[in-house]
Each structure stands twice: as C-alpha cells, then as structure tokens.
Amino acid sequence: MPKNENIHLLFSYGTLQLEKVQIESFGRKLMGHSDVLTGFRLENLKITDADVLAKSEQEYHPIAIPGDSTDQISGTLFEITASELQQADAYEVSDYKRIQATFSSGRQGWVYVKA
Predict the structure, then answer these.
(1) Could you give the angle at the alpha carbon of 41 between the alpha carbons of 89 and 57, nearest 5°?
(2) Running DSSP on this structure, what letter comes out for residue 94?
(3) CA-based nearest residue to 35, from 9, 6, 63
(4) Which residues face 33 on adjacent strands?
(5) C-alpha–C-alpha distance, residues 30 and 77, integer Å
(6) pLDDT mean values, one per 10 residues, the chain (115 residues)
(7) Alpha-carbon distance 77 to 17, whole Å?
C-alpha cells in the first residue's frame, strides 16, 4: 500500500473477503481484522453484472439490510487506500450503497448496504 495515501476502513461480509476478488479488484491481498456490524441482517441478491460474476464466481451475493438492534453481521474490516475505495465502488452493483458505520470494535469505516 502506498505510504502517502490516506487509509480507509472497509467492512466486507461477502465476496470482497475472497482473495481472488481482492487480487482482481485491487491487485493485492487485503489486510484486515474480524469485526461485527450491528443493526443489519443479510439477504441474498442475484447478481447479473458479467464483470462481478467473473470475479466472484457466485450468482448470489449477500446484501446488508437494516434490521433491529439484535441483528449482527460478522465480517472483516479491511485497510484500503482512497483509490482502492473507488475501485470497490466500481465493483459493487447499483443495488448497494456505501455508508459509514461504527463496528463492534468501536472503529469506524465504510460498508455497502442495500441502496
């Protein structure tokens, strides 16, 4: 990771945790730590974007939707650069939007949820 770039935290509960997707999207394996997003639950979303299907090799991807205070999603909070955050935006289909959230660790970062 370039030393001069600002670091962003990006939470993944789905295909961005796959090494193949990371390498094809960012050109490297991402470093991160397990964390939990509360107040959301997962549903499945059918993916039709050919590029995303080629990278993930999965027709259905999880998508976070608002739930109640007891709902939790486990995942990984990755450290990425600003330019990699833009690459992540390009990877996600329009059914997702990126929001800021606070995770169980107390750290703040970005997460893609249902648009």
Answers:
(1) 50
(2) T
(3) 9
(4) 77
(5) 10
(6) 76 93 94 97 92 89 95 97 93 92 97 96
(7) 10
What's the CA gap between 41 and 22, in Å, rounded? Answer: 24
pLDDT at 100: 97
Length of the chain, in residues: 115
Where is 89: in which H helix or E strand?
Answer: helix 82-91
Report the distance separating Cα 70 and Cα 24, nearest Å.
35
Contact 74, 8 (CB under 8 A): no
Contact 60, 44 (CB under 8 A): yes
pLDDT in tens, 53-82: 888 899 998 999 999 999 999 999 999 999
What token pair was written down for 52?
């995303």
